[in-house]
Specification:
single chain; about 130 residues; mainly alpha; Arc Repressor Mutant, subunit A; three-stranded antiparallel beta sheet; 6 helices; WH_DNA-bd_sf; transcription; ArsR-like_HTH; DNA-binding
Length: about 130
């Protein structure tokens, strides 16, 4: 599938061409598609969560990795850290408008994976048995 400036014969904009090593969007792509970014964004699609709720929702993520990914995604403008002025303060993480838009797309991917997991596992077994 050819989409974007290349499809129309225009030169790609290096600031929006993830195939270009200098594209700032590549870092965002890395944050979103790393092992945890997609799961964090999808989990927050269900609504605001506290740190421990996110950690419990996403099996296998360490506190350190959750914290690093939350910082990166917040830096990309995809999530927001909100501090409730209570004693002790309560911190919630929510999706920004950009994050909500992205999470909707990611949920579609997660839904497709859930729908096709049996087919993929069967293909993996077939491939493994051919070797």
């Amino acid at each position: 599938m050819n989409v974007g400036p290349q499809a129309t014969g225009q030169a790609p904009d290096p600031l929006s061409d993830a195939f270009n090593t200098d594209c700032p969007g590549r870092a965002v792509f890395d944050h979103v598609t790393n092992r945890w970014g997609m799961l964090i964004l999808a989990a927050l699609g269900d609504g605001p969560m506290r740190f421990h709720q996110l950690r419990d929702r996403i099996g296998g993520i360490s506190d350190k990795m959750l914290s690093q990914n939350l910082r990166a995604l917040a830096g990309d403008g995809l999530i927001q850290r909100e501090v409730e002025p209570t004693s002790p303060p309560q911190v919630f993480y929510t999706l920004t408008a950009l994050g909500q838009e992205l999470a909707a797309h990611l949920q579609g991917l997660l839904d497709w994976i859930a729908l096709r997991t049996h087919d993929i596992v069967a293909a993996q077994h077939q491939h493994h048995n051919q070797d």
